[in-house]
């Protein structure tokens, strides 16, 4: 099963043990890149105002590091353009001078994609934060890429619309970063991903040329759909400066159900039932195994939801436009799965307080695990038949040595496999028991080693577990075509 | 408003007046391509079985021409591979020999994309027609690219699922062609487009290398999303051999409403209301103006739906999973738009016979217009504010000279503007009154000159009306990177 895995290239690299999670391979600085000098800074001060060129180390520091304090660069310059034309002038100059650049949005990523690896200039989009237009008939919103996701939601909500993407980081992540990383989140089951919801993108290529694909049309079959290239390429192919997005009407009725069942096969059957009986009002289908619940109960002020402990807990959310209809559907669904002995216990919540209590069980898992000790985290997509098996395999492997838990967006096939040990810091022997096994298992079942977090600077050398050598070769050809000097977000996404 | 339109290049081209629709620019054969010889045919007979290499002119004829008999090539060879490896061997050979190739699916396109312009080899995918897998939990289906769309629907229907795309041509179009052309159709409003619904693609590049991105995962953020490049690039970047697609549960309850109103502003308001009140069960929002109804009444056995003639007719379809709920929603919606004087008349149909009668009004427009004389057809996407204005402008322009009608998928912003004259054949003076005006108008409002039909060999020289020179330049760079000898579907999509 594992024979078709491509061997990792023998890369020129230095290893370092980082504080959290995993051994990170940090490549050496590529000497082809220029280091910035006063003349460069003068140039940037001429095209931007002085408040938009940060050189004071205390100003720059926060931009050099990610929010988890896991990745840290050594940049000495942050540029904060306000217009697409300024982004264009900056990149044109950097391309000519061979200065490397890392675009940065809200800096809320998990794989080190938005901070410099070495001394790359940080191009912050934070000052490009205007909502430029909204069409109340079509629901299409257009905004600059630095607009904070929550601000778009606040703008749309009184107009009866909602953003089709929702993340825990919504208060600080920016739409340009969401698009660049093809962020997933909890609404994906209901509204689909960004490749479907983003209608237009304006982006600046490495040579400064502006690609205006800022369409607000749902249908446009005129040539290649270039905007798709920028979605999920983590700022390595161009800097996104504006996006237009279709937004759905805001649901007015929300219900949540919590259920337990005694086998993962039943979880799968309930998913199928939910999809057909709840139809389009189904907006979340999350699962947690019992060890998740135990961890949450140990660290949070919450009650065990049912007297009867069961191996699997499912949270189902519906969002619709008719409270009576939605409740009826959810009740019919509950009756049907109870009659067929698919669940052991079940409870419905329709008021905000109880809904929050149910969601708290699911949303506290990560924080609660953090209180247990060291947590080794994996964000996988797996086919349904292998979805929970990897948790069981790892649990057997770690019996008596670590707590292995599984939870996640089962409706999207996205498993969060977490392995926690009481001991800190992270131990090599635990990593060796997990990697490359988990990656090889995922690869052999055609899964994804990064369902929603991306590759960044964390996983370029693991890319081959999810993509073939021909695919990686084609990605490199496209990168080389669009950014021949490799100035945009170097050391990220693609292996050397 | 029209100043930013890029001037057409001075192309080496020969004009010809074709039977239907429009003046087509047919480029000269590029002498860099080899012409096939017996040795080539022997080679292909060695890698395919003899029934899969068609050289008899009577066998080849049907593949040389599109179904409208509008575009015709002069190919002498059709290859019908059965496996991806055979496609790979064919392309590798053609690339080395610089033999041009046109991939062909069901050959149901409207812009000449799937037939040879000159003597390109026709690579028919018709024999690659197997459904390879279906996951009843996730609803993901995987099949070879030559699978006829209707066959996928027939396969899924008894399993309680449905394809997210539906077209008039479903009985003969193939899924690979649908994906290559990013086909739209009537379910787009409900399920979104193929960029969101296609989860994986296997494709063969011009040099024969196989790009296996045949993921069945909803979430996979590992590197660039290469499959997106093949969606809508009309076979110019690679030959799609397999696809995987997410399929939604099949709705069990369908209702249709027909309404009239006295202004297009009210049509727009009703669209907004329908989106918020009907929510996710809204599956079609089509409009026709009164001249469309008059044409249908003149040529079909149908009755005027209401005594009171009005300028605009709207057809709204809902598809859901609960008949009672859906009817209630549609009734509440009807009451609300009547109370606010948005509509003049309205009628609901819930049984198959009446539903068909309502749809017949909409679906007979094209056929009925065809009986009037010469029809000049334009498939545009326009912002809502300009959506109907172009029909009124053209109607004023043609007063007394031609019948100008507008209809289409208003829910998707997709207008079909049709201008019919009693006289055949098509007249240059009529074209001159329409083009380039309609394209320039569309361009100045950032619309699309091809909402769903694509570019093919019909519109490469009109691409600049919807895409900037930087975008076209980037498309050409990508084409050159992926197919440096330009053997795949030459003379199509991109201007010289």
TrEMBL record, chains A, B:
UniProt keyword Oxidoreductase present: yes
Lineage: superkingdom: Eukaryota
UniProt entry keywords in alphabetical sequence: FAD, Flavoprotein, Oxidoreductase
Oxidoreductase is among the record's keywords: yes
InterPro entries with a match to the protein in the record: FAD-bd_oxidored_4_C, FAD-bd_PCMH, FAD-bd_PCMH-like_sf, FAD-bd_PCMH_sub1, FAD-bd_PCMH_sub2, FAD-linked_Oxase-like_C, FAD-oxidored/transferase_4, Oxid_FAD_bind_N
Domain FAD-binding PCMH-type: 71-250
Gene3D superfamilies: 3.30.465.10, 3.30.70.2190, 3.30.70.2740, Uridine Diphospho-n-acetylenolpyruvylglucosamine Reductase, domain 2, Vanillyl-alcohol Oxidase, Chain A, domain 4
GO molecular function, one term: FAD binding
GO cellular component: mitochondrion
Cofactor entry: FAD
Family: Belongs to the FAD-binding oxidoreductase/transferase type 4 family.
Full protein name: FAD-binding PCMH-type domain-containing protein
Source organism per UniProt: Dictyostelium purpureum
């Amino acid at each position: 099963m594992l024979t078709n895995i491509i061997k990792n290239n023998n890369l020129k690299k230095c290893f370092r043990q980082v504080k959290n999670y995993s051994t990170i391979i940090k490549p050496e600085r590529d000497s082809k890149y220029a280091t910035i000098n006063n003349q460069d800074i003068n140039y940037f001060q001429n095209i931007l105002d002085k408040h938009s060129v940060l050189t004071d180390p205390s100003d720059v520091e926060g931009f050099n590091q990610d929010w988890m304090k896991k990745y840290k660069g050594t940049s000495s310059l942050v540029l904060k353009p306000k217009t697409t034309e300024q982004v264009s002038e900056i990149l044109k100059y950097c391309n000519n001078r061979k200065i490397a650049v890392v675009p940065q949005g809200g800096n809320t990523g998990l794989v080190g994609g938005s901070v410099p690896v070495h001394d790359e200039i940080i191009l912050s989009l934070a000052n490009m934060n205007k909502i430029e237009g909204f069409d109340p008939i079509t629901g299409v919103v257009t905004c600059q890429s630095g607009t904070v996701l929550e601000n778009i939601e606040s703008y749309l909500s009184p107009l009866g619309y909602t953003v089709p993407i929702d993340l825990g980081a919504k208060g600080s992540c920016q739409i340009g970063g969401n698009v660049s990383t093809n962020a997933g989140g909890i609404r994906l089951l209901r509204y689909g991903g960004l490749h479907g919801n983003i209608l237009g993108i304006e982006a600046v290529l490495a040579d400064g040329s502006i690609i205006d694909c800022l369409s607000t049309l749902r249908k446009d079959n005129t040539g290649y759909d270039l905007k798709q290239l920028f979605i999920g390429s983590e700022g390595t192919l161009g800097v996104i400066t504006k996006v237009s997005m279709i937004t759905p009407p805001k649901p007015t009725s929300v219900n949540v159900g919590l259920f337990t069942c005694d086998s993962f096969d039943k979880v799968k059957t309930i998913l199928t039932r939910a999809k057909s009986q709840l139809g389009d009002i189904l907006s979340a289908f999350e699962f947690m195994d019992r060890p998740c619940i135990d961890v949450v109960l140990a660290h949070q002020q919450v009650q065990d939801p049912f007297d009867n402990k069961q191996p699997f807990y499912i949270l189902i959310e519906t969002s619709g436009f008719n409270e009576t209809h939605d409740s009826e559907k959810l009740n019919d669904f509950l009756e049907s799965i109870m009659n067929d002995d698919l669940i052991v216990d079940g409870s419905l919540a329709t008021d905000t307080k109880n809904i929050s209590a149910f969601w708290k069980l699911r949303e506290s898992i990560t924080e609660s695990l953090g209180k247990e000790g060291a947590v080794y985290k994996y964000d996988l997509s797996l086919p349904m038949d292998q979805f929970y098996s990897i948790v069981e395999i790892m649990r057997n492997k770690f019996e008596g040595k670590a707590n292995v838990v599984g939870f996640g967006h089962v409706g999207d096939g996205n498993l969060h496999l977490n392995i926690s040990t009481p001991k800190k810091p992270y131990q090599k022997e635990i990593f060796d028991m997990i990697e490359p096994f988990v990656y090889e298992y995922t690869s052999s079942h055609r899964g994804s080693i990064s369902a929603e977090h991306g590759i960044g600077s964390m996983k370029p050398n693991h890319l081959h577990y999810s993509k073939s050598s021909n695919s990686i070769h084609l990605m490199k050809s496209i990168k080389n075509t669009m950014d021949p000097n490799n100035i945009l977000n170097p050391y990220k996404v693609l292996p050397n």
